[in-house]
Amino acid sequence: MINIAIVDDEPIFIYTLNNIIDNCCNSLGVKHLIDKFSNGYSVLENYNKYHLIFLDIEMPLIDGITIAKKINELKFESEFPYFIFVTSHDELVFEALNSIPYSFIRKSDVNNEIVLRNCIAKLSKIVEDKSKTIKLRTNRQDIILKISDIIFIEKLKNYSYIHTASEKYSVKSSLKDYEIVLSKYGFIRCHEGYIVNLHGICKIYDKSILLNNNETVPISRNKVNIIKEAFMKRTVCLNG
Predict the structure, then answer these.
(1) pLDDT band for position 23 (50/70/90)?
(2) Ramachandran bin of 78, using left for φ above 0, alpha for ψ from -120 to 50, beta for the remaining angles
C-alpha cells in the first residue's frame, strides 16, 4: 500500500491527476490511497501519512518549494515522503533541487502515463523494500528485524554486530554473508570490518562516515569514491 497526496490550487487539475495516478496504480497492481488538498498548509499537518506528495510549485499562501523545505525539516532522518513537483515553469525547477528526494512533471506532460507509471513503480519497490525483514539468531533466541532499521554492521573477531538506532545485536556470522544478503537493499561495504546502510549516511569524509545516529565508522581509501557515488545515486529522481 502506498499513500499519495496531491496538493494543487486548481480543482480541475487535481481531478485529472488523481484519475491518471489511479489508472497507473491499478495497471501496476499497486494498492494505493490518494488524498487531495487545495493548499499546502493542510498537507503540512499530515505529511507523515504519505509516501509521495505531488506538489504544485506555484500556489497562493504557501508555494510547493516552501512546503517541501518545511517537511524536510520536520521529518528528520525519515526517508518519506518523496516529492514530485508539478509546474508549468521550468525556471522554478532549480530552487527545488534542494528538496531531495524529488522528481518533476510538467503540467503539460501530466497525461503521459508512462512517466507517472515509472514513478509509481519505483516508489512501490522502495516501500516494499522498507518492509522487508531479516531473522537473526542472537543470545540464543531468534528475532525478526526490519532491514531498514539497520544502520551499520561491524565485524569483531568471530561476531558481527548489527546496529540499529536503539539496539546492538551480536550474531555469530561473517560480514560477507550480510554483504551478499543486504546489498540489494542499499547496504555497501565501506571498510574491511564495516557495512553501512546508504540511507543511514549523514556525511562522508576522507577517512570516515558520519551516520544518522551520530556514530562514526571508518572508510577505506579505495572505497571513498565508490561510497560517494552510491550515496548520490540513492537520491536520484524517481523518474530518472
Answers:
(1) very high
(2) beta
Q: What are phi and psi of 120, to 5 degrees?
A: -65, -40
- Dihedral Cα 202, 208, 213, 215, nearest 10 deg: -160
What cell numbers appear for 207 in the block? Answer: 577517512
Spatial neighbors of 203 by CB under 8 A, at least 6 apart, are 209, 210
pLDDT in tens, 48-107: 999 999 999 888 888 888 998 899 888 876 788 999 888 776 555 555 455 555 677 888
- Quick one: which of 16, 40, 29 has its CA closest to 5? 40
Under DSSP, is residue 163 helix (H, G, I), strand (E, B) or coil?
strand
CA distance 240 to 230: 15
